[in-house]
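queue> holo job accepted (S-adenosylmethionine)
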Amino acid sequence: MIPWEEIDRAKVPGQESELILRKRGGEFSIRTGGTELMNSRIHGSEEALAGLALKRIHPKPVQNILVGGLGMGYTLAETLKLSQPETRVLVAELIPAVISWNRDHIGHLAGMPLDDPRVRVEPSDVAAIINRQKALWDIILLDVDNGPAGLTRKTNNRLYSDTGLKTAFKALTPGGVLAIWSAGDDPAFTRSLARCGFRAEPVSVRATSSGKGSRHTIWVAVKPGSKGKSS
Ligand SMILES: C[S@@+](CC[C@H](N)C(=O)[O-])C[C@H]1O[C@@H](n2cnc3c(N)ncnc32)[C@H](O)[C@@H]1O
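queue> job finished
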């Protein structure tokens, strides 16, 4: 068995814990406080997050997509693969070290998506970016935590609260799509999305692209209007 090798560690802004990047052969892992946040072997549902949102909005043109956060870049790479040349993608990543790691150590995993000229990355809280402008985003993709029921970062609660969902609703263009990754289903959250004006459904997806492994949930929530398909 190849031993894990520590590549780097970084302070998480505003927290005691550190983020650790490790490597074992060709496999990479990001951990914090003894818990694995991401592993490069498992990224099927991260790609499905982008795939489901873009499929829902197709065939209408997509100008602006917001991706929060970056992680290992799999959601971003799938977004780029399925988007037109004129689409612009902004990535919001809270932890600056994650951006540096994607540039220096792990970018090859998802095909160096940060090098794509359509992409801009901001070291920011995605909640602040959503709050910035109304009716701008055709698609907002959120994979920043375990989901509405299992927060690892308390401040992310505002993204999943009714206030956060209403802010996301306003930030989307008519027909725009909000897609949210979660480790598990949460019927109360589906109701929250509906209460905030979305036509929403939870979609169960496999953790790996081979169709094996545990299941994750992705909510596809459409803001009624002319762009997305409503069902
Ligand atoms: C599970 S990873 C995302 C994985 C990503 N979908 C992929 O394909 O690799 C979660 C990422 O969100 C970032 N994050 C957490 N809270 C955030 C926030 N409020 N705003 C922006 N990024 C955030 C974390 O630092 C981490 O890089």
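queue> The domain at 42-222 is CATH 3.40.50.150 (Rossmann fold).
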